[in-house]
């Protein structure tokens, strides 16, 4: 539960965000919150300490120049329009081996659903099949969420597609560019990879105890030394959109879209999510070659099943249900 001081600062920041073209007077803030002008000044100082750039002009008041890039819980929750995701805990780490591993440890310790782990950099970021996800400081958004869905183990792979959709919609909201979802876990802009995700499923007996859903979104260009060994050429939001992108606002957009689809799936099942994923992908109907653990499958993609499997029909009429793999 946020303290009274935190709640006042959240409201002050919200008002400043709504009036970035003008100034909000300290007197107005003082009267609105029934606090002294000195208290207003102290709250503004705290907001500045969190990284928000706030201009103060005598006889005019305060104006927000740029929202903070610090991904701390207090900053992320300011203006976060969710009911669950991020509201029960945002664990910010300047540097971590892997946000998924950190979230896994929290989940095993009883962290509630919707707990978020976010970091400025990962020193051991992971993709599918043990691949490295390059996560240098300040270049991207690296985030994991604890989920505790009431679903069967065979349904759990659909979470990968859900994360795919949430990341794609957050990218669209921040840039105006509608990306493409590439099965099973990539988000592409003009054929270049801008985001990916890693879903890790944990069972208790024959039921799902929790799922860790991790995502990485490239906000700024990766250093050239990291690009050469990647299977798919990367791109970033700022270079494709041609403008500055706030990681805080991107994280908030991602959590809002994730929560929307996650709660919808809980209430109505997977059908609407799958329809949306298919709208964002160009894979259905294509002739593909897919490599799965060294074995190659060729055929036409006929559909994606309700449990997230790619349905690939070979030339001899055999249908292959693929849980994951690499499109060659």
TrEMBL record:
Gene3D superfamilies cross-referenced by the UniProt entry: 2.30.30.100, Bira Bifunctional Protein, Domain 2, Winged helix-like DNA-binding domain superfamily/Winged helix DNA-binding domain
UniProt-listed Enzyme Commission number(s): 6.3.4.15
The keyword DNA-binding belongs to this UniProt entry's keyword annotation: yes
SUPFAM superfamilies from the UniProt entry: C-terminal domain of transcriptional repressors, Class II aaRS and biotin synthetases, Winged helix' DNA-binding domain
Domain BPL/LPL catalytic, residue spans: 77-266
Alphabetical UniProt keywords: ATP-binding, Biotin, DNA-binding, Ligase, Nucleotide-binding, Repressor, Transcription, Transcription regulation
Gene that encodes the chain: birA
HAMAP family named among the record's database cross-references: Bifunct_BirA
PROSITE patterns assigned: BPL_LPL_CATALYTIC
DNA-binding region: 26-45
Binding locations of biotin: 98-100, 122, 126-128, 193
Catalytically driven reaction(s): biotin + L-lysyl-[protein] + ATP = N(6)-biotinyl-L-lysyl-[protein] + AMP + diphosphate + H(+)
Pfam families: BPL_C, BPL_LplA_LipB, HTH_11
Family: Belongs to the biotin--protein ligase family.
UniProt-recorded Gene Ontology molecular function terms: biotin--[biotin carboxyl-carrier protein] ligase activity
UniProt source species: Halodesulfovibrio aestuarii
PANTHER family: BIOTIN PROTEIN LIGASE, BIOTIN--PROTEIN LIGASE
Protein's UniProt name: Bifunctional ligase/repressor BirA
Job of this protein: Acts both as a biotin--[acetyl-CoA-carboxylase] ligase and a repressor.
